[in-house]
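Reopening this one. Same input as before:
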Amino acid sequence: MSEATPADLIFEQPLSERVRTFLRLELLFLQYHDHRRDETTFGARASLHALLDLLVVTSRSDLKNDILKELNDQYQHLTRLAARPSVDQERLRGVLAEITEVLNQLQQLATQFANSLLRGSDFLVSILNRSTIPGGTCGFDLPHYHWWLSQPRARITRDLDAWFADLRPFERAILLYLKLLRTSVPAESVTARGGIYLHTPTGPCLLVRVLVPASAQVYPEISAGRHRFTVRFMAMRELSERAQQAQVDIGFQLQCCNL
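Same output, byte for byte:
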């Protein structure tokens, strides 16, 4: 089995709206936690804005039931695998226990928790409404926000933790699902002849992952259809120049992930 190395760049292309949403949430969770480590006023601003983005995404659809269904289905699938003698039983028990814990935490969460939090906080809604305007959260626009940002760090930390509390089980569920999806199949070593690779999956595919050596100095454009997808590698020397398709053979690793 081939695996990614630190010298690989990983590019992902979701092939379903659900996985696309999960990947966007993963990015927002990473941004939120990174900003939380910044204890300046701008760190608090960035943390709150990432939090608001998370609440907006999670309030737009029934994501709780979506992720519950996905993890329940995966639990049933893995349970059936336990009967196979070749399966690593200890590792399987660990994964099943993790899924069970995540499911229990998620089931205790109100389905519309994000909507409820936003509806119940004029403070958060006022910032959300102004955040789409460039520079729209200045002190003269939102004096109460300016006041909050001036409070002791302990107060800001307390408030951020309280607002994020209901997102924690959701975050864990999303990250667990994506981990299971990404590790569902081994990476296959393939070659894009003249910079182009055409692939016809043998079964369903939810996520295409392309692992490219950073030394290749190319990036993939992935065009996916119902029955096949194309990976075209592009090279760009300077940002001021238009990217050109690579004309040489590019060796890379490919995963067609599905649960």
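So the earlier flakiness isn't reproducible anymore. For the record, The chain has two domains: 17-181, 185-257.
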